[in-house]
Amino acid sequence: MKLSQLRAIVAVADYRNFSEAALELNLSQPAISHAIATLEAELGVSLFSRGRRGAVLTAAGEQIVYHARQSLLHLELMQKEANLQKGLNGGQVRIASFRSVATHVLPMVIACFRDRFPNIGITIIERPDYLDIEQTLREGRADIGMTYLPTGAEFEAWELVRDDYVALLPPKTSIRGVQMTWEDLAAHPLVLLPCLPCGRILHKHLTAVAPPMRTASDIQEDSTIVSMVMQGLGAAILPRLAAEPIPRDLCVHLLPDPLKRVIGVAALSDALHTPAVFAFLETLKTFDFHSLAHVG
C-alpha cells in the first residue's frame, strides 16, 4: 500500500469525482484511476460506486477511507514532530545519570535550560552505575550520559567535576592526629564501601594503599550507608556528592591517600544529535561544578 493510494482515495471521497481529485493532487485522471484500482485489487473490495452521481463510497470504502484519513493525519504529525526536533521550539533530551549527579548537578542545569528553551522536554533516566549508563547510550535509549572518565572509544566525553572520596565516621569519633590515618579507619568494626561496579575505583585504591580492614560493599543505596554510620554501626568511604546531604554530626575526613572520581559528560560519537541535545550540552559547559566537590 502506497502513500499515493491513500491520498487518492481521500481526494476522490472528498470531491466524489476522479477528475477533480486529480486536479487537487496535480495528477492525471488515469493516474488517480490506477491508484484506486490497484488499491481495490490489493484489498479485495470495491471502494467506490461509479455512476451519474459521481464516485460514491461503498460501505467498505467508508470504513477504509476513515483509516486512510487517520494514516495521513499521523504522517502529518510525524513530519511536524520531526520539524520540532530539528529546531529549538520542541523536542526531547534524554539524560542517563546516577543518583548523585541527578540530585546535585542536573537540577540547576535543567532550570537554566528551561528558561531559554521552555518547549524542549527533559527526561532523566536514573541508572545504578556508570556501566549501565554507557549501555543505555549504546542502545539509543539516552542522548547524554553522566558517567566516569575515561569512557570507551565510541564516546565523545569531557570532564564535568572531580569528586573526592571521603571517610565518614560516627558522631563524636576522635582521631589521634590532625589527619585521619588508615589505622583510624580500620579501628571501626566495619567500613562500608560503595557497591560494585561503582566502587571499583575505590576497591582498587584500597588494595594498593590501605592495610587490611573489614569492609562491606553490598548496600545499594548511599543514603543507607550514611544512616548506618550515623547510628554508629561502622565507618564508610563514599564520594562526597554521593554522601550528600551529610548530617552535621558525622565526622568527615579526606582519605590518607586522596582519591577522586572523575565524572564526565558522554555522548556517542557517531550519533545524529538534534539541536536540542547540542543546546543542552552547550548549557552544561557554561557551569562550573568544581565547587560542588567541596560541599559540606
TrEMBL record:
Q: Which GO terms of the cellular component aspect does the record hold?
A: cytosol
User: Which stretches make up the HTH lysR-type domain?
Assistant: 1-58
Q: Lipid biosynthesis as a keyword?
A: no
Q: Which domain of life is it from?
A: Bacteria
Instruction: Supply the SUPFAM superfamilies for this chain.
Output: Periplasmic binding protein-like II, Winged helix' DNA-binding domain
Record-linked InterPro entries: HTH-type_LysR_regulators, LysR_HTH_N, LysR_subst-bd, WH-like_DNA-bd_sf, WH_DNA-bd_sf
Q: Name one GO molecular function term.
A: DNA binding
Keywords in UniProt for this one? Answer: DNA-binding, Transcription, Transcription regulation
Q: What family is reported? A: Belongs to the LysR transcriptional regulatory family.
Instruction: Tell me what this protein is called.
Output: LysR family transcriptional regulator
